[in-house]
Fold this sequence. Notes:
With 327 residues, this protein is mainly α. The chain is 76% helix and 0% strand. It has helices at residues 2-21, 23-63, 83-110, 114-117, 124-158, 164-194, 198-223, 233-236, 241-249, 252-263, 266-277, 289-295, 297-316. Helix 2 (23-63) runs parallel beside helix 5 and helix 7 (198-223) packs antiparallel against helix 10. Pfam families: ABC2_membrane_2. This is ABC-2 type transport system permease protein. The chain crosses the membrane at residues 24-47, 81-102, 132-158, 170-194, 201-219, 300-316. It comes from Devosia psychrophila.
Amino acid sequence: xxxxxxxxxxxxxxxxxxxxxxxFVILITAFLLLASLVALAVAAIALKGDVATxxxxxxxxxxxxxxxxxxxxxxxxxxxxxxxxxxxxxxxxAIIGILIGYRAxxxxxxxxxxxxxxxxxxxxxxxxxxxxxxxxAIISSGLVxxxxxxxxxxxxxxxxxxxxxxxxxxxxxxxxxxxxxxxxFLLGFVTALWAKKLPNxxxxxxxxxxGFVLIAPQIGDTLDPDNQVAGGVFKQLQIAKxxxxxxxQSFSTYETxxxxxxxxxxxxxxxxxxxxILGIKDTYAGQPxxxxxxxxxxxxxxxxxxxxALGLLLxxxxxxxxxxxxx
Length: 327
């Protein structure tokens, strides 16, 4: 067993050390943190103002003789502040995944060592597994740092503490973010391994990124009639849920096409899952975690299926040393 695992760990360790020495990976991770913190700070300051307003109003009522126990506590949902953070993870996290995956293959091809490696007495799966293990570790480290900073910032800026369940929700979303970024890592790695010319690989990977991260979700949101009015058309018109379903049945074909465009995107699945678990979408704010997880299992399964499909694609194809030299 040691002889099987040791080459994997050796390759992974080498890639991790190279990534630590590569300032570019550190810089784009820092950019994710900075962009997310700016969005988070704006929302957190607004929440802090709401908390202060409530405290002043409560103090005023108590001063007038109101019994403090009869004053209802407002429902503050600090995890709602992470909307901008999640949206940045959707875009920048996918870019980081692609670049780390591309670099994992390009670093070997650029030094013209990849063709040599696959002819050495090491199984192809060990080489690929080492690369994927390193990429997973690098991505996970960056996301753990980002989510810890985001959670701490919510507390420090807004003044609202996070409970154990809030931390658990953050951990679930962080895990989903890791799976999401891993899918794009595999995309960048596969294209860089197989393309005859490395620039073409990066172009192809970012074309896929553009289609599935930016275009497909935007088309789905734009074509959704309920998104055309703040809060939703149904909510503004106070239409009950049964009537909503009846109305939607009249547009079933249109809705099927629109939703199909949305669900083709792993970004949309990650967003739906994250917005529900964190209570960013009003429908799920204050709701118990387990029913939300049960409802959103399909989104998690989609993310897992996409990552597995790319992984199987990677390991199923035989590497050809004659095509791996730098061109």
